[in-house]
C-alpha cells in the first residue's frame, strides 16, 4: 500500500504531487495526498475534480482528449482519509467516448463526475469571445499573498480577521498555483467582472496535453465561487448582514477548446456572476492565454450564505 499523506508542505510544492493517484485495479484509483484550505469545510474541490479527471483519462485510449466535464460535490471530503475513485465506461464511439467517475470516502459517495473525450477534428471553423482589453500584464500585478498580507496589516481590524488573512497568506505561499489579481471592473450590465492571472509553479518539465487539462481543472476552482459572494456584497471581514458566512462548491463544469496550452505559463481567468439568491450563486468563467486565445469556459454553482447574526425574534400577535 502506498503511503497516504494529509496536507503536508511537500504536497504543495509540485502540482503533479497534488494530482497523483495510486492505481488499485483496472478502473479503481486511490488518492495519495489531500489538502484542506485554511478555514475550509473539507478537501479543496479543485483537487477532487482534477484527481477524478486523471483517473478517467487513464481509462481511455491514447489520441482521445477530454473536451468537457460535469461534476457534483455531494459531501465534504476529509483530508485524513484517502478518496477512492471508481471509473465506469459509458460509451466508446469513433469520435467521442464518455466516462463517469464516482468518488467515495468512508463508504459514502462524496463526488460524481461525467466527462467526454474527443478525437481531434482539424480544419473546422471557429470563433471566440475576445479577451478583455486593457488587462494589466502579469509582471505588473501583485501576488495574491502580498495582497492578503496588506489586508492583515490594516489598522482597526480584529485579531480574528487578522489571523484569517495570515492563514490565507500561508496557503498561497505553499500552493502549487501562483495567483495574481488583475483587477475588477463593473460591466455595462452592472455585474462585477473579476480577473486573475494564474499558473502552476515549480513545473520541472512540460506536461503532456492530457495532464495539462487535469491541471487546469485544479486551477479552475480557485477564486471562482467567491465572485458570487462579492457580487452580492458579502465579505469575510464585514459585519452581519454583509459578513460572508459560507461558500462551498455544488457543481462544476468545464468545456475545453484547445489541446495545446501550458499551465506553467500565465493564464487569465475572467469571472462574472449573473445571479445569487436562495443561499446559492452561479459564476461563469473564461480562460485565456497571454496571447488572447480562449482555451476553456467554466461554470460553477455553489452555496453562498451570509452570516446574518442573531435574527430578531418574531413577535406573537396579541389575542383578542
TrEMBL record:
GO cellular component, one term: peroxisomal matrix
A Pfam entry, by short name: 4HBT_3C
CDD domains: Thioesterase_II_repeat1, Thioesterase_II_repeat2
Domain called Acyl-CoA thioesterase-like C-terminal: residue spans: 159-304
InterPro entries in UniProt: ACOT8-like_C (IPR049450), Acyl-CoA_hotdog (IPR042171), Acyl_CoA_thio (IPR003703), HotDog_dom_sf (IPR029069), TesB_ACOT8-like_N (IPR049449)
UniProt domain Acyl-CoA thioesterase-like N-terminal HotDog: residue ranges: 35-118
Keywords: Hydrolase
Gene3D superfamilies in alphabetical order: Acyl-CoA thioesterase, double hotdog domain
Molecular function in Gene Ontology: fatty acyl-CoA hydrolase activity
GO BP: any one term: fatty acid catabolic process
Highest taxon listed in the record's lineage: Eukaryota
Disulfide bond as UniProt keyword: no
Family in the record: Belongs to the C/M/P thioester hydrolase family.
PANTHER family: ACYL-COA THIOESTERASE, ACYL-COENZYME A THIOESTERASE 8
Protein name per the record: Acyl-CoA thioesterase 8
Organism: Rhizoctonia solani
Amino acid at each position: 500500500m502506498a503511503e497516504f499523506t494529509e496536507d503536508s508542505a511537500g504536497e504543495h510544492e509540485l502540482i503533479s504531487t497534488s494530482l497523483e493517484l495510486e492505481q488499485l485495479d483496472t478502473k479503481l484509483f486511490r488518492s495519495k495526498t489531500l489538502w484542506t484550505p485554511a478555514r475550509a469545510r473539507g478537501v479543496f474541490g479543485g483537487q477532487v475534480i482534477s484527481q477524478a479527471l486523471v483517473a478517467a483519462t487513464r481509462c481511455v485510449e491514447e489520441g482521445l482528449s477530454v473536451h468537457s466535464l460535469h461534476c457534483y460535490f455531494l459531501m465534504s471530503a476529509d483530508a485524513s482519509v484517502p478518496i477512492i475513485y471508481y471509473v465506469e465506461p459509458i460509451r466508446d464511439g469513433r469520435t467521442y467516448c464518455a466516462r463517469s467517475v464516482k468518488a467515495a470516502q468512508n463508504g459514502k459517495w462524496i463526488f460524481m463526475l461525467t466527462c467526454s473525450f474527443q478525437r481531434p477534428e482539424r480544419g473546422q471553423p471557429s470563433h471566440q469571445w475576445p479577451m478583455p482589453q486593457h488587462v494589466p500584464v502579469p509582471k505588473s500585478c501583485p501576488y495574491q499573498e502580498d495582497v492578503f498580507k496588506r489586508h492583515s496589516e490594516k489598522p482597526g481590524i480584529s485579531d480574528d480577521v487578522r489571523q484569517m488573512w495570515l492563514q490565507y497568506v500561508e496557503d498561497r505561499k505553499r500552493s502549487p498555483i501562483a495567483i495574481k489579481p488583475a483587477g475588477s471592473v463593473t460591466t455595462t450590465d452592472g455585474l462585477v467582472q473579476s480577473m486573475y492571472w494564474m499558473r502552476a509553479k515549480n513545473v520541472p518539465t512540460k506536461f503532456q496535453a492530457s495532464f495539462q487539462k487535469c491541471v487546469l481543472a485544479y486551477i479552475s476552482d480557485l477564486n471562482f465561487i467567491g465572485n458570487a459572494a462579492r457580487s452580492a456584497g458579502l465579505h469575510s471581514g464585514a459585519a452581519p448582514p454583509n459578513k460572508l458566512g459560507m461558500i462551498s462548491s455544488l457543481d462544476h463544469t468545464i468545456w475545453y477548446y484547445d489541446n495545446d496550452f501550458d499551465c506553467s505559463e500565465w493564464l487569465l481567468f475572467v469571472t462574472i456572476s449573473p445571479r445569487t439568491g436562495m443561499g446559492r450563486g452561479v459564476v461563469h468563467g473564461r480562460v485565456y492565454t497571454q496571447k488572447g486565445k480562449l482555451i476553456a469556459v467554466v461554470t460553477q454553482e455553489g452555496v453562498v450564505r451570509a452570516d446574518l447574526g442573531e435574527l430578531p425574534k418574531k413577535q406573537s400577535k396579541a389575542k383578542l
